[in-house]
Each structure stands twice: as structure tokens, then as C-alpha cells.
Specification:
- The protein has helices at residues 7-36, 39-50, 52-70, 75-117.
- The chain is mainly α.
- It has one domain.
- The termini are far apart.
- The model has no long low-confidence stretch (mean pLDDT 88).
């Protein structure tokens, strides 16, 4: 029986995403920044979102390396991948939470400053 998606097809797709998502993030961030009149912040946000493509490709390569070394039925390989993906996910979650709390803090301070003027 033939596979629906081969490893080579998945590798090719992830390579395309790794190359294309940062570019798409920059373009979309620039467009939204121009509309909102906050170009620098929107471009940075778009780029950071776009970097999820290279992160996914890197995790795919590491996953394949671990599975190639220990085998698909290895508990050790599963635990290594679980730890790796958990750490990466936690780091991304903490970074996004930190950035959102900073953005809320800036918005609140600018609102209070403009309210004091009126």
C-alpha cells in the first residue's frame, strides 16, 4: 500500500514554508502597518510570526534525526521529542505572553496620558 504523504513530500512542503513564511510575514506586516500607521511594530510582528516556518522545519529535522537514531517504537526517542517540543512550545508561549502584556501596558499608559490631557 502506498503512503498518502511521503517523507520527501513533507520535507519539501516544510522547506517551502520555512522559506516563504518569513517573507509573507514581512509583506503582510508591512501592509497592516501601513493601514494602522504602525509600520515598525507590525513588520516585527509579521516577521516573528513568519519565523514559525523555520522553527517548524528545524523541529521536523530534529524529530527525524531522533527517530532515525532511536527508532519509531523507542520510548526514549518519544520522551526526548516530548521534552524538546514542550520546551520550544513553552518558550514560544512565554515570549508571546510577555509581548502581549507589554503591548497592553503601553496601550494603557497611552490611554491614561491622553485622558489626562482632555
Amino acid at each position: 500500500m502506498r503512503e498518502l504523504v511521503t517523507t520527501e513530500q513533507a520535507e519539501r512542503m516544510l522547506r517551502l514554508l520555512a522559506a516563504g513564511l518569513p517573507i509573507a510575514g514581512l509583506v503582510i506586516g508591512t501592509l497592516f502597518g501601513a493601514i494602522r500607521r504602525r509600520v515598525a511594530r507590525s513588520v516585527l510582528a509579521g516577521l516573528l510570526l513568519g519565523l514559525l516556518g523555520p522553527v517548524a522545519f528545524g523541529l521536523w529535522r530534529v524529530y527525524n534525526g531522533i527517530m532515525g537514531r532511536y527508532g519509531l517504537d523507542s520510548v526514549k526517542g518519544l520522551l526526548i521529542n516530548l521534552a524538546l517540543f514542550s520546551v520550544v512550545g513553552l518558550a514560544i508561549g512565554v515570549a508571546v505572553g510577555w509581548a502581549m502584556s507589554r503591548a497592553r501596558g503601553r496601550a494603557a499608559s497611552s490611554e491614561s496620558a491622553s485622558a489626562g490631557r482632555g
